[in-house]
Amino acid sequence: MAQLSQVAQTSVAPEEIEQQLVAGLLAVHAHTSPKYLYDVLGSRLFAAICELPEYYPTRTEAAIFAQYEQQIAAAVGPASVFIDLGAGNCSKAARLFPSLQPRQYVAVDISVQFVAEAVSALQQQFPQIRMTCLGMDFSAELELPPTLDMHHRQFFYPGSSIGNFAPLEALMFLRRIRKAMAGSNSGLLIGVDLIKDKAILDAAYDDSLGVTAAFNLNLLHHVNRLLDADFRPADWRHRAFYNSAQYRVEMHLEARRELTVHWQDGGERRFARGERIHTESSHKYTRKGFIEMLQLAGFGAVQTWTDPDDWFMVCHAQA
Ligand code: AVJ
């Protein structure tokens, strides 16, 4: 197998993870960070979601990349240090390699196990690109290796992952990315989901095969392992809907009956029947609103590409 030039993991202290999780579970409106959806099985279930007929974002974004490949490659420029935030199985970046021709590829993901496998397969396919793997929760802090060139940095944040941040957090995140680049030839290539009919959004997050339900419920297995807790997925149901007042899809887990969950060190929480744990928000934007946000974050010229229905947008923002 080809050797990766670098695999590194900046790990969050387990106590910190536990404190954050417990605080969310004990809150009046219980909530968990969407990052807990992505253990190894969660990452696989998300890859399956991307294949669902109802889940339009992946397919729509891919069509935009395919249709405007040359324009997008021209915006990004050649020989970039291509930094893939939330690389997952790396398939989105890999599809762009022939036209983008990056000099270096840095795959960043919270699940280093998952991404390292994908990158080592990719390295064989593209031996001329130097590849690096970073296991990091970049939503909290973007800690890139000091050896990495500050110039020619092209960040890649596809799939509308930005939607997991509330708008103000998204702005702060974009500012951090902007500050992590220097000079000319630096920029951000980002995919953003646009506001659309509620029925389309509801179906995209509550599919008929129940894959998104499994993805949401799998969070309970992950939390059980992290906290030594006793959540039983059968006691919970998947709820997902577009909240049009907040321009976001919300995912929740709803207790099917009254129950008490226990975890390590004697921690517990009672849930009434129908009570929910808010597990994810997926914010949607208008083209104009998102461009304004990029400008507030300090970016320069912005180019956008959309599909014929205006369901999804790909943006390139220069430093
Ligand atoms: C990975 C955050 C872009 O919000 O559409 C898909 C996650 N959750 N189905 C999204 C997700 C349920 C996805 N993002």
TrEMBL record:
Histidine-specific methyltransferase SAM-dependent domain sequence ranges: 18-318
MF GO annotations: ATP binding; methyltransferase activity
Pfam families from the UniProt entry: Methyltransf_33
Gene Ontology biological-process entries: methylation
Keywords: ATP-binding, Methyltransferase, Nucleotide-binding, Transferase
UniProt xrefs under InterPro entries: EgtD (IPR035094), EgtD_Methyltrsf_superfamily (IPR051128), MeTrfase_dom (IPR019257), MeTrfase_EgtD-like (IPR017804), SAM-dependent_MTases_sf (IPR029063)
Listed NCBIfam families: egtD_ergothio
The protein's name: ABC transporter ATP-binding protein
